[in-house]
Amino acid sequence: MTFGELAKWAEIRNWGQRRREELTTWLSRIAVLPGDEAVAATWGRLSAAAVRRGRPRPVNDMWIAACCLAHGIPLATLNLKDYEDFNQHHGLRILGRE
Hints:
Blueprint: H1 2-12, H2 17-27, H3 37-52, H4 59-71, H5 80-90
Helix pairs in contact: 3-4, 4-5
């Protein structure tokens, strides 16, 4: 999901070839978590729980949280407010808050 958001960023801002290559180089050093059935099932649980609480969350944020929860890894983000529900209700670990 984050990879896709970065690609969208480059498209919207009409990045040239040099900047796109720099992004590709930078991303090549970063692990990209696969989307699989475990992630999709976790996303479904997060989405349903948010609806039941009367607080639906943005789809992109849920996919990112689902990847972290399904793979048992913490989330590195500066956007704490968008992930607080996942931390509070599902135990999502957020780096810097542990």
